[in-house]
Design brief:
Layout lengths: L7 E7 L3 H12 L6 E7 L6 H11 L6 E2 L5 H9 L6 E4 L4 E3 L3 H11 L5 E9 L5 E5 L6 H6 L10 E3 H5 L13 H11 L4 E12 L9 H13 L6 H17 L6 E8 L5 E10 L5 H5 L7 E4 L4 E2 L2
Parallel strand pairs: 1-2, 1-4, 2-3, 6-9
Antiparallel strand pairs: 4-8, 5-9, 6-7, 6-8, 10-11, 11-12, 11-13
């Protein structure tokens, strides 16, 4: 990191996920063209995470870990952001990654659009080995769609100006256990925050069946948030809202299958595995990542891992 204040402050909450965390840290460390700080908030893991983080922090000035008890993932993110010094804040869970060049593109987007408060982008859904099972290209976030359907992005693609934190708008409601991100986006939209969608694949979202988004408590929390923000109570009207969102995605080409190549960090160095995905679509299910069905796309790896330079 440069001696100047960081441009980005990336928060990562973690607990007992050291193998995933190493890859996550590597993907952030690989953003070599941007001054950043990586604020890892460890909830007193028992798998060696704290010792590993201390050793890494001694070697890398941009890694700032804290190991302490917290009130859950959203409280951990708030704790990390409270230490942030960057112009732009984000969070990246330990099973997620930024693709190479992500932060450079996001910084350029913010600088080109000084009126924008939040940038969002597209993402790959990957299995535990980094193999893509889906490409999620989204449309700009809209309060009507988010309230009546679901949050049509992942937090690994969201980046915020620090002024939102300074104004008290960015703090996550830690009373929620599963859907505070949906509540946050709806609060920001209600407060007039200006969102901009960057139609670029920025991140990977890992899924293995243990994600909070798959928990049974998610549906109940999401429903209470929908109602709090004025969602239709009559389900057929919500179905129409979902149909409208899908139609807009169709018109924007979000469902078109594509071929793409991407680099996936396999350690903290970082070294990268290079994958090519052919005819990658947008739909996926847990069976796709658990080996229970034929894959929706062909994903191949290339040669030996590449080291970032």
């Amino acid at each position: 990191m440069n001696a100047a204040l960081p441009v980005f402050s990336v928060a990562t909450p973690t607990r007992n996920s050291l193998d995933k965390l190493k890859r996550c840290v590597g993907s952030v460390r690989g953003q070599s063209d941007v001054a950043l700080e990586h604020l890892v908030q460890d909830a007193r893991s028992t798998d060696g995470t704290a010792d590993w983080l201390r050793a890494q922090a001694a070697q890398h000035a941009d890694l700032h870990p804290v190991s302490e008890a917290d009130g859950g993932m959203y409280d951990a993110i708030n704790r990390a952001w409270s230490r942030a010094g960057g112009r732009y804040l984000s969070w990246l869970n330990s099973d997620e990654q930024y693709l190479p060049g992500t932060l450079t593109q996001v910084q350029a987007c913010f600088e080109a659009h000084p009126e924008v408060d939040v940038v969002s982008g597209d993402f790959l859904v990957t299995d535990a080995h980094g193999r893509a099972v889906a490409l999620r290209r989204e449309i700009p976030l809209c309060r009507f769609y988010v309230a009546n359907t679901h949050l049509n992005t992942m937090t690994c693609t969201l980046f915020y100006r620090r002024e939102l934190w300074d104004r008290g708008l960015l703090k996550l409601d830690s009373r929620y256990r599963y859907a505070a991100d949906k509540d946050l986006v709806l609060r920001l939209l209600a407060a007039g925050a200006r969102f901009h969608h960057l139609p670029v694949v920025l991140s990977t979202f890992g899924i293995d069946g243990t994600n909070l988004s798959t928990h049974t408590g998610m549906a109940q929390e999401a429903e209470s948030i929908r109602l709090a923000f004025g969602a239709f109570r009559w389900r057929p009207l919500r179905a129409l809202a979902l149909a409208a969102r899908r139609a807009e995605r169709l018109l924007r080409g979000c469902y078109r299958r594509v071929d793409l190549q991407y680099r996936y960090a396999i350690d903290e160095s970082p070294r990268y595995a290079v994958f090519t995905a052919r005819q990658l679509g947008t739909r996926y299910s847990l069976s796709d990542v658990e080996g229970g069905s034929e894959p929706a796309a062909v994903v191949t790896a290339h040669g030996n891992p590449e080291r970032n330079v």
